[in-house]
Design a protein that fits this description.
The structure holds 2 protein chains of 2 kinds. Chain A is of the alpha/beta class. Chain A has 6 helices and 13 strands. In chain A, strand 7 and strand 8 form a beta hairpin. The chains are: A alpha/beta, B alpha/beta.
Chain lengths: ~250, ~325
Amino acid sequence: MKIVVCVNHVPDTATKVKIGADEKFIDPAGVVYIINPYDEFAVEEALKTKEKFGGEVIVVSVGNDSNKETIRKALAMGADKGILLKAEKPLDSFGVAKALADDLKNYQPDIIFMGKQSVDYDDAVVGQLTSEMLGLSCISNVVELKIDGQKVTAEREIEGGKEVVESGLPIIITAQKGLNEPRYASLKGIMAAKKKEIEEKKIAEYPSLTEVIQMIKPQAKQPGRIVGTDVNAVGELVRLLHEEAKVF
Amino acid sequence: MSRAILAILEQRENKLKKISFEVLSFSKKLSEKYNNEIVAVAIGNEIENLNEVEKYGISKVIHFKNDALTDYSSSAYTDIIFDTAKEFDVEYLIFGDTAFGKDLAPRLGARLNAGCIMDCTNLNLAEDTPIFTRPVYAGKALINVKFNSNEKVVTIRPNIFKAHIIENGTVLNVEIRNISSPNLKARVIEIKKSEGKLDVAEADIIVSGGRGLKGPENFNLVENLADVLGGAVGASRAAVDAGWRPHRDQVGQTGKTVSPTLYIACGISGAIQHLAGMSSSKYIVAINKDKDAPIFGVADYGIVGDLFEILPALTEEVKKIKA
């Protein structure tokens, strides 16, 4: 089976975001970059799929040289080969999807995994965009997946429950937390990853369909008051919520 | 006359959800400056409360009907909305930023070569072109964004843009179109509901528990308070990763970003990932025994103390007020 997993290189979730001098991007100074957490579930599912059906797992990332670190992480987990689609400048989600679609159409994977969203821009659209560009099905936000021959049955998380969705291959699956427990890269895996190939390709220029005018910090919430230091404060808290905040 | 706005309504179990009315009011707001026609689109079999659309000042709704469309089908819904967007020369497509809207909106973006601005939390019409604000990095920063594309897809975060009822508005024209053979390449075959409870993503009141609860067996304290308040139960990442609560309850980065009217954090210290996901709540209450816990830095009201005593007492007090 031809399996592709798309990964993104993003600031660690523990990052304190500082706005850069251009007021359009964050200040990258001191920021630690990691594999996008949702992409780890995607890599794990790709590896499980390979273990079941055979074939190879190709890791694809759109970005610059630093993304190789994240590609290596996926290779260390067990993926076979990496592709870096090199972008000269940052792309919006539409551009990322275009770059992926333009490259993957030549390869024609049976199944493409990616995280349901990147924890930087939180758009949660690249899977669905790419699927339409390639004319494939896509099931997003998936927490359980079964592949049976050409048929895919997936459970996707919705408000208050799950939708069980049926579709056929080829397909794009976007992973939600809960889909699996990502494996740790073994020492052997990490060593092996160093020898695995990462192919670099320059991508075309894609126009941005959206434009960031300014990045700003949200209004900081001011600390309120400590109502009390034990159970005796409960009466006053309820009075405040009822009379001042009027929340019930 | 400007080009049209397509307001995409969301139904579940044959009823329009609250977010649908928020989508209508948002569309209405956007249309007021540019005088766009609004076409509301509902897809499903029977939709019991479709006439409620009229209350929000909307005069045209198209109901695409077929038995097989009761539940969501990404392929069929995408085809129908794409055809409608072409028919009405649509400039904007507005969706709610729900599991449904998040899944569907970008598909239309790709088909129409339209930019997508997702999870919008503010609309600024004071400039030459509409400017949309949306959170990034789970709310640690915001971006103001505009479109460079001719067609434009927007999803709006639930509970931010209130649905406004317009008295003596227009008369609603409901047009029913039967869809003979929908494209069911991908379709929902079953919906599994999680046991009874409200979802944190949709709740107006959330009571969340963290490591301070000490174990899953103590979450009944959180549940009881949530019950008397009519709210949902949330959890910190620590509580979810420990297996005390399902992932769907997780609030924060790699969980859900929420903006309820009232958020009560119980035994949650307030890691940066958690604060990012809930700081935009209107009122925040923190109950924690550590007076230096970061959660107190964003709380409107705090009690420094033992939640095992405070939560039952709080539940009782709320019960009295509600009685």
